[in-house]
Amino acid sequence: MSLDNFTDLPSGLKPEDPFPEWLNSADNAWELTAAAMVGLQSVPGLVILYGSMVKKKWAVNSAFMALYAFAAVLICWVLWGHRMAFGDDLGGILGRPHQALTDGYLLDQYKEEYFLPNADYVFYQFAFAAITLILLAGSLLGRMNFYAWILFVPLWLTFSYTVGAHTIWGSGFLDKPGILGKRGIIDFSGGYVIHLSSGVAGFTAAYWVGPRNENDRHHFPPNNIITVLGGAGFLWMGWSGFNGGSPMAAGLIASLAILNTHLCTATSVLVWLSMDMIYYKKSSVIGAVQGMMTGLVCITPAAGIVDTWAAMLMGALSGSIPWYTMMVLHKKSAFFQKVDDTLGVFHSHAVAGALGGLCSGIFGKPDLLKDFYGVDSGISYGPGLLYGVIEGQKLEGLYQVVYQLGGAAFITLWNVVVTSLICILINVMVNLRMDEEDLEIGDDAVHGEEAYALWGDGERDPPPLRFHMTPKIPAFCRRR
User: Span of the secretion signal (predicted)?
Assistant: First the structure.
């Protein structure tokens, strides 16, 4: 489309000049790439992962829940969600609802200190919002009514996700943080906003939806472990954009964030694998994928503001603490046993996300914090507790840890309350849970489709094989 057709061009942009002075092509290209990488984590990443990690009869339904959420969130995001999360403040916890579709808004500069258009930020933050809903779905696979899920996605995005994003990141992310961000809470790329909220909300929704049927809950093998690894690969490599895009520039902090992301993740995989081998005497592929996930989640709130040695130490923690809560505590606790969290999202995202947020308050390096958040933001981000002790600022470091704990408590409480209210409301309109007959059948009953339909209607069975004791001799081998 020619720029001549735009009716509401922002200041500084002329129809014959699609490259205004403030636009940095490198930053713009990197941010679009990062946003696309985050999108690929969901589609096809989590679509493949969910479709492969569940029992065969739930493969279509699980993958479809992810695909629907991705599409629905985009429409809601540009119509009202983005401005509710990052628009003009309303009461400290929410932005003013408004669409983000006009050329004048999308093609205008995103803040004076950044050199890319609002369109980049809208799409990047959409990819964050979409993956949050899809991660949440991992707690509900194998029994939630798909029509209830259709209603749940826009409601939870509107009343839960936007509040978490606004309170911590605010209308300007770095220059105009929300009420939690004003206290100096560190969340580099969504450890609280995305992972803690999805883990807590998924666990809460799983309580209201109820457990899978008895057979599924106790016998739920992945239908294809090889494609599980394929989906996991999209997640791991896509996390380069997840954390590397948060600085909104192709600079030093982005480079450090990407390296720290992969160091933490690799360490977490090896630690989780070691724990499995020590206690269960076997190396589990699914366990390694869980360790990968907890490492990615744990480093997210700290990726660009900690040293590489701290990232590796966080990987050791994320490979062991969530392992203990999932593999030991979960099995012993009556509370955890009561709630059927299908893929263990509470442990891999809520526990790992909270752990990463706490580590941010311990290992946050002062000069990196200044580089990322800026010295002119007006917000006092204290040094991590470790550096506070080293530099003689023990009190500031302690305050930072307290702020991190307070932020985790707010996100947890908000998601428990709001998710519960949403589930109760939806249950008035449609059943949250599938009918028992459909639970027995799975995909064919819900969608009329199966993931692996090798034989369809109207086709004959293959002819029976005939075995000959004496093999036939090929014609060209016979004597004439």
Answer: none
178: left (phi over 0), alpha (psi -120 to 50) or beta: beta
How many Cα atoms sit within 13 Å of 214 on the Cβ side? Answer: 0
Convert the pLDDT of each residue in 215-266 to its tens digit: 999 899 999 999 999 999 999 999 999 999 999 999 999 999 999 999 999 9
Go through the domains of the chain in sequence order and give each one's CATH number.
Answer: 33-447 (1.10.3430.10)
Residues whose CB falls within 8 Å of the CB of residue 422, separated by 6 or more in sequence, listed in order: 152, 155, 156, 159, 160
How far CA 17 is from CA of 79, 113, 409, in Å, comes to 28, 21, 49
pTM value is 0.89
CA distance 480 to 470: 20
* pLDDT tens string 67-93: 999 999 999 999 999 999 998 887 778
SS (H, E, C) 90-140: ECCCEECCCCCCCHHHHCCECCCCCCCEHHHHHHHHHHHHHHHHHHHHCCC
Tens of pLDDT, residue by residue over 383-412, are 888 888 888 788 888 999 999 999 999 999
- In angstroms, the CA 460 to CA 480 distance is 40
Q: Assign residue 187 a region (left: φ > 0; alpha: ψ between -120 and 50; beta: otherwise).
A: beta
- Nearest in space to 87 (alpha carbons), one of 13, 169, 182, 197: 169
Q: Give the Cα separation of 303 and 391 in Å (integer).
A: 22
Alpha carbon distances (Å) from 284 to 272, 278, 294: 9, 12, 15
The pair of three-digit structure tokens given for residue 26, joined into one six-digit string: 């490198």
| Cα–Cα distance for residue pair 321/357, rounded to 1 Å | 14
Tokens linked to 89: 């403040």
Q: Exposed, middle or buried by CB within 10 Å (0-12, 13-18, 19+), for 130?
A: buried
DSSP string, 467-478: --SSPPPPGGGS
Model pLDDT, residue 11: 55
Identify which of 35, 47, 73 has the alpha carbon closest to the alpha carbon of residue 156: 73
CA atoms within 13 A on the CB side of 457: 3
Q: Cα–Cα distance between 201 and 444 in angstroms, integer? A: 28
345 token code pair = 């999202």
How far from 138 is each of 206, 341, 434, CA to CA, in Å? 10, 8, 16
Q: Which residues, in sequence order, are CB contacts of 353 under 8 Å at separation 6+?
A: 191, 192, 194, 195, 196, 199, 297, 298, 300, 301
Task: Provide the residue type at 208 as one letter.
Answer: W
